Amino acid sequence: MAYQELSVTQVSVAAPGFKGPEGVVVDRDGNVYGGGADGIIRKLSPDGKVTEYARTGGRPAGMALDRHGNLFVCDVGKAAVLKVTARGEVSVFADEVGAVKLCLPNFPVFDADGNLYVTNSTDHPLGGMDDVAAEIRNPVPKGALVRLRPDGRGEIVTTGLYFANGAAIDPREEYVYVLQSTRNNCVRIAMRKDGTHGQLEPYGENLGGLPDGMAFDAEGYLIVTLPMNNRLVVLDPAGKLSTLVDDREGNTLLAPTNCAFGGPNFDDLFIAHIEADRLSKIHVAHKGHPLYDRR
Q: Which domains does the chain have, with CATH numbers?
């Protein structure tokens, strides 16, 4: 069913105190996790209580859960993918894959077999937001997508991406999708049954702004965040673009970075805001695609 544009007044504060979260993920029990600019991952429980979950000592970005309650975190400050156990114990899971050094790991997503796909935005260290802004002004194909297998093997899926950011796998497990932030678009790569991959191909219309994160619903609609536009957009299964929520003034939907489905009926969208100390949510009345930890 197609999405209708929602009013920004329908966006509510899920919880304050998350200190500029970039990533957000929801577990099967309804707990919501967000990583702050202070290096602290916080947990919002279904009863509304916010607690400290773990400290990475870096800058958490995208996150994904496995079936054992472990949280895998792309940490920009640590230049590594971290593993956080259900007890909050933090360790380095990977900091390089083949010739790709994870200088700016951005987003992880599991496939149905437990392989972890990770975007790496660039192959050289960035000293801060000024360096990021410089690359946005002068796009270069320095990003990559890698795959980390459950047995610890790692392999490069593709290189030459333009600031590879959010990643997602469609409900049919046919493609892995990647947002190219400096191209304002989405690309995808076929996932073959034998474990190999197809060629990189464009997907959908131009997104109309710099994209950051995304999430599939159960019907194959793809919701994408545009932080610099304070907007959420939707790509339908044919790749046609529409607006879900637009907050031009940024009063409520300020710099949305990542989003994840959750809520009692799995039809609420939780939103991280890199420039605000809160997580937000909006009822979209479309059920999300259950990720690896829920299947």
A: 8-294 (2.120.10.30)
